[in-house]
Write a structure and sequence with these properties.
2% strand, 2 strands, 53% helix, Endonuclease III, domain 1, two-stranded antiparallel ribbon, mainly alpha, 187 residues, 9 helices
Length: 187
């Protein structure tokens, strides 16, 4: 499958046309560089919560996640305690999964301690100059995502495997996986 015409006639990655939320995310965020520690922590956390669910579910709950997780400020989330876990488990606006919530808090502690080194570590896995894929080139992992997952686990990050790492790489601009004939340019 190749890119398909969107509502404005421009060619886009087919997944982007499944819902208006997808289209907006595809056109304005997906694949655009995110370099801040907080921005990377947010994306990593959301990708972790997405595991086993639809990305659309996460997109539609994103503002609730931001409120629940203190704007994804790693320093603030690092101070969450058991009362915060209970609060989050009762928040219908987010995905209420104890393991994912506890991982998000634990990961915030690691990120807060690492600071800029966390962002630098993630960006060390950038795949520059890889040609944009055709649909046959689509993948769920890569050697870089496997290495990233291992490196982040060694640093203490939880609930983060190679598939989640690859989704993060796509989301934050480490790899450009817009199809070769997609009209969205990240240049």
């Amino acid at each position: 499958m190749s890119a398909v015409p969107g509502p404005d006639g421009r060619l886009r990655c087919p997944w982007a046309l499944g819902a208006a939320d997808y289209l907006a995310y595809h056109d304005t965020e997906w694949g655009r560089p995110v370099t801040s520690v907080g921005g990377l922590y947010e994306r990593m956390t959301l990708e972790g919560f997405q595991s086993g669910l639809s990305w659309l579910t996460i997109l539609r709950k994103r503002e609730s996640f931001r409120r629940a997780f203190a704007g994804f400020d790693p320093g603030r989330v690092a101070r969450f305690d058991e009362a915060d876990v209970d609060r989050l488990l009762g928040d219908a606006g987010i995905v209420r999964n104890r393991a994912k919530i506890e991982a998000a808090i634990s990961n915030a502690r690691v990120v807060a301690e690492m600071g800029q080194a966390y962002a630098d570590l993630i960006w060390s896995f950038r795949v520059p100059d890889r040609p944009r894929p055709t649909d046959e080139d689509r993948r769920a992992t890569s050697p870089e995502s496997v290495a990233m997952a291992k490196a982040l686990r060694r640093a203490g990050i939880r609930f983060f495997g190679p598939t989640t790492a690859y989704a993060l790489m796509q989301a934050v601009g480490l790899v450009d996986d817009h199809l070769a004939d997609c009209a969205i340019s990240l240049d």
